[in-house]
Amino acid sequence: MSNKPALHRDGRDRVIAELFALEAAGVDLDGTLFSVAAEASGYSVRHLRRLVAALRAARHDRELQTEAKDGWLLDGEVVNEVARCSGNLAKAYRNLKATKNLPSLATFQRKVNSLLGQHAMTVIRHGDGKARSRRVYLKRDPGERGHTYETDHTECPIYVIPTGHKRATRPYITVVVDHATRYVLSLVITFGTPSAEEVRVAFISAILERTAADGHTRVGGLPFRIVWDQGKDFLSTLVTESCLRLGTTPSPLPPYSPNLKGRCERFWRTFKGNCLASLPGYIDSGTDVRGTLHRAQYALSEVAFVERVTAWLDWYNTEHVVRTLGMTPLQAWQADPRDLVTVPADQLWCDFLLSDSKATVSVQGVRWKSLDYVTLHGELDRLIGKQVEVRYLPHMRDFIEVFHDGKHVGTAYPSDHLQPEDQEAFLKQRRADQARALKNVSSVKRIHKQDPDTSKLHKRKLPGGKFAYEVDVPDDDLRTGQSDALDSYRPRRDDNGFDEHGQGLLV
Asked: Where's the Integrase catalytic domain (predicted)?
């Protein structure tokens, strides 16, 4: 406390001097150092902080007074002239020297840079946007996995040829990143500025619980909140209502605050430098003497681009070590014991991106985007010949969601790309459905067989390659049944003796 006896002041002054010595050596005066100094001197941490701040202010005032004695002071006139010259200190020096007593140019430049600081000088020279890299930011508590998801999209510096087009264009990518673990839960590729529906798809695919690239870790789940910037697609009523309906809190960030979603911003730098920079069509690699882009002589197709980006994303999540975490995003996700908040799939399907695509179910399944899709449990068998609605992720061809009359039929996968276990599940379900159908027919056969008025039919081959169905008639033995055998060949006659043709008996 400040009213301690005078005998304690020597210890106070000693620890204050030690703190200033540490600061001069480049050590940050954090709470731990102040706690140690408070314990050694008997004064509170708050009191020591006030003393250090007061001594700093007094030292700054002494420096200003010293500069004033030299004949000039960094006053408003000097600052205004430096700002008017856009940070050109040599020009500001020439303009001020006629009216002020200034030291040498080198001393003037050193003093202005020292007193204004890098941030203020960068604002003067390049504006506030460029000056963000010259500021000190507080570290944010990473929290628990699944608490906060950050989302953002960017136009990629690469040319890609969309499917069905001949003109190359720059794709947009929307990502959703878990704030605590840096795990990228969703990556959606679109050609053209993402719409609110496509942003909503990125959210839904991040929330959808599934297996990670290692084959056993469950990722996804509903977060407590989702943060994004002031983009109109993010602020749309459609996206806000979807988040509220699912039970998560939409949290728009203040304007011009990219540092509040720093996980996404850092991911973009890694993604562009580590993934896109090695691909054909990259446009941030400079130009030749004719102004032609070095890497834009060739471009990937949409399918190839999606495959390479997806493979890189699996590497990033499972193998890339994040420096601040000291582990991969997947390891950070696995190290957090917090349970995932699961959302029923039926509730998610209601918010999936709706497509205008209609397809007719055939024996090959659902034909969509030049691929045949089938369900693994025979849901399409009852819809052969009927039209269904297809819902899908903008860049994903690995699966589609099939709807009929507004109801979810099932998830369909490309029949040419099924895994062996999926093929076995498909064939097993088909055999089970066939056995169930045959069992129904067998029960009918048994009922018909027990009917005393029926006879069993047999397939007989006729001359000319035709077939007929006949009953089995036992062969009559003419030695024992001569009259019966003969009667079978005699025409039947009525009571007057006429046959079916009206012919009577010949006498």
From this structure: 138-337
Query: pLDDT per residue over 209-259, tens digit each?
Result: 888 888 888 898 888 888 888 877 777 777 777 788 888 888 888 887 777
C-alpha–C-alpha distance, residues 349 and 280, integer Å: 36
Q: Which of 111, 62, 65 is nearest to 89 (CA)?
A: 111
Neighbour-count burial of 309, counting CB atoms closer than 10 A to its CB (0-12 exposed, 13-18 middle, 19+ buried): buried
Each residue of 171-207: pLDDT tens digit? 999 999 999 899 999 998 888 888 887 788 888 888 8
Q: What is the pTM of this model?
A: 0.58
**Which token pair is 213?**
């690239």
> In which residue are the tokens 């430049």 written?
109
Shared domain check, 117 and 22: no
The DSSP result for 313-381, as a single string, is HHHHHHTPPBTTTTB-HHHHHHH--PPP----HHHHHTTSPP---EEEEETTEEEETTEEEEETTSTTG
- 32: helix, coil or strand? helix
Do 131 and 158 sit in the same domain of this protein?
no
For residue 228, give the 3-state DSSP assignment.
strand
Q: What is the DSSP string of 239-294?
A: HHHHHHHHT-EEEEPPTT-GGGGHHHHHHHHHHHHHTGGGSTTBSSS-B-TTS-BS
| Cβ partners under 8 Å of residue 395, min gap 6 | 188, 189, 190, 302, 306
Q: Which of 282, 304, 306, 309 is nearest to 293 (CA)?
A: 282
- The domain total for the chain is 4
